[in-house]
Amino acid sequence: MSLVVVGSVAYDGVETPHGRVERMLGGACTYIALAASFFTEVGIVAVVGEDFCQSDFDLLASRGIDLAGLERVPGKTFFWSGIYSHDMNDRTTLRTDLNVFAGFNPKLPQHYRSQPYLLLGNIQPALQRAVREQMLAPELVGGDTMNYWITDAREELLRTIRDWDCLLINDSEARQLSGQHNLRGAAQAIFEMGPRTVVIKRGEYGAILFRPEGHFIVPGYLLEDVFDPTGAGDSFAGGFFGYLASRGLDLKDGRADPRELRRAVIYGSVMGSFCCEKFGVDRFRTLTRAEINARYDEFKRFTEF
Amino acid sequence: MSLVVVGSVAYDGVETPHGRVERMLGGACTYIALAASFFTEVGIVAVVGEDFCQSDFDLLASRGIDLAGLERVPGKTFFWSGIYSHDMNDRTTLRTDLNVFAGFNPKLPQHYRSQPYLLLGNIQPALQRAVREQMLAPELVGGDTMNYWITDAREELLRTIRDWDCLLINDSEARQLSGQHNLRGAAQAIFEMGPRTVVIKRGEYGAILFRPEGHFIVPGYLLEDVFDPTGAGDSFAGGFFGYLASRGLDLKDGRADPRELRRAVIYGSVMGSFCCEKFGVDRFRTLTRAEINARYDEFKRFTEF
Fold it and tell me: 3-state SS of chain B: helix, strand, coil percent to 5?
């Protein structure tokens, strides 16, 4: 194993203009781990309830994901449901039942602690910190967060991200966290908070990688059809971090390889785009490394001049 | 001369979060011609009133723009004013006084008619057609349009664009014109309407060039500060078409050079980005070709992988 991922493993109910699924496997940790598993060996830290299906365990296991850190406890698995607007640019949460997630107290199995890569999915910053502290000496720590923690747990969040190497965040959250509308300014402000690598996700418009020495912008992939954007940002994170881990890359100032970092952003974009092609995690059931490589080449073709 | 541009020459009142200008030179034709003048020789077809300032004539003339087709008639010049939202993604029109523009009946000077390139700025489709018909045998005809003509003069617009080689349009208008939300689908539908080259402008997110054989996406330039986005789309069109004209390029099926077309999109993006750096056309007063080339290289650096 090489990459430890922590976050939610959940059941989701999703409605998009293409249809509706009452209950399917979801959660940030699930999407990150599945996407990363195409690049490197992954172990997850999460909690599920007694209702968690064997077939969902099997899916994760089939991708070689280490489930030693996946606790199963009495009660029900975290449940989220939402509905997307016609253009899929907005979504409304219909229900959030934390269930067993309310008492989540992540404990890392012994063999996780010495791993070099750690990706902290979007959960309470104090829990992200608790996981980070259980790791011995990770070479690279990255994480995600969301508007709720930025406004309601700001101090805790700032204390948490202070020693992260990399923050992955969407554009509106970057503005909220930094208080800067301009994204260059937002990234500068976030550098001061700790992370020296900031990846700003822009949904259908792609992503920007900011480093103190410069930035890299990739446009979003133009899908023929977006079935379900749920999990696209987490799949991006999984592809990005999975690639870094697979190459043994470091992001410390002066040691980051800018070309490899850009490639990681493309692999993140590739995984985010595949995620949207089917409901939930379905696209990852059949996806192959050859398809991933072909889409990487497509990114090259439609951006090169 | 090589490129004929038709459209509005106007006075604008603009308020952005950075300040307010009561009255300054504006209009689609002005922005297109100024931007294109850094690449090729341009002649304009437009109408102004008696209030049109000598210093504004002088600015256009200083860029070598042929003003033989700029009619001056009794009355006042077209006036538009608007105010931008805090994030500059929305603007509200405060006033539109067509003035002399209401009676605009474009007549091309004899020496314009044999020119190879024609760019029809956003005006009433019937006027765009009237200009097109006065040209002898242009090699390349492109134009812009807007939501108002798409909804209120749809048949006339479809008749007009039928023989254009290239349509430049923003994303929401492309969706409106085609009835397709997906931009790939929108471009396909527009190909069927006539133009085989469709450039979709996405504001701060950049632009997409669609051709039947494939597409090219460029992200928007990340400005330190956006002073005034007025005219950015027209400046894009001017840079794009100006570059094509300067290289003697053709867009007929099988004759378009895809590499040159991509370069034209980058030059369009470069000119759109410069336009936003100062109020109105001010940035074009001091801009140099060396600055344009340096920004072109920047686009290469921040998109390459």
Answer: 40, 25, 35
Query: Which tens digits make up the pLDDT trace of B282-298?
Result: 999 999 999 999 999 99
Give CA–CA dist B169/B153, Å, rounded: 16
Phi and psi angles of residue B111, each rounded to the nearest 5 degrees, phi first: -75, -10
Question: Contacts of residue A223 in chain B, CB cutoff 8 Å?
Answer: 182
pLDDT tier for residue A89 given thresholds of 50, 70 and 90: confident
3-class secondary-structure state, position A198:
strand
In chain A, residues with a C-beta closer than 8 Å to the C-beta of B265 are 305
Quickly count: other Cβ atoms within 10 Å of residue A291's Cβ: 14
Residues A145/A200, Cβ–Cβ less than 8 Å: no
**pLDDT tens readout for residues A139-151:** 999 999 999 999 9
Average pLDDT over residues B113-128: 97
The per-residue pLDDT for range A165-216, each reduced to its tens digit, is 999 999 999 999 999 999 999 999 999 999 999 999 999 999 999 999 999 9
CA distance A27 to A249: 26
Smallest Cβ distance to B184: which of A224, A263, A301? A224
| Encoded amino acid at B76, one letter | K
Residue whose structure tokens are 């969040």:
A157
pLDDT at A250: 83
- Contact assignment for B205 to A208 by CB distance below 8 Å: no
- Measured CA to CA, the distance from residue A187 to residue A195 in angstroms comes to 10
In whole angstroms, what is the distance from residue A100 CA to residue B176 CA? 46
* C-beta atoms surrounding A51 within 10 Å: 14
Closest by CA position to A85, among listed A169, A10, A173, A14: A14
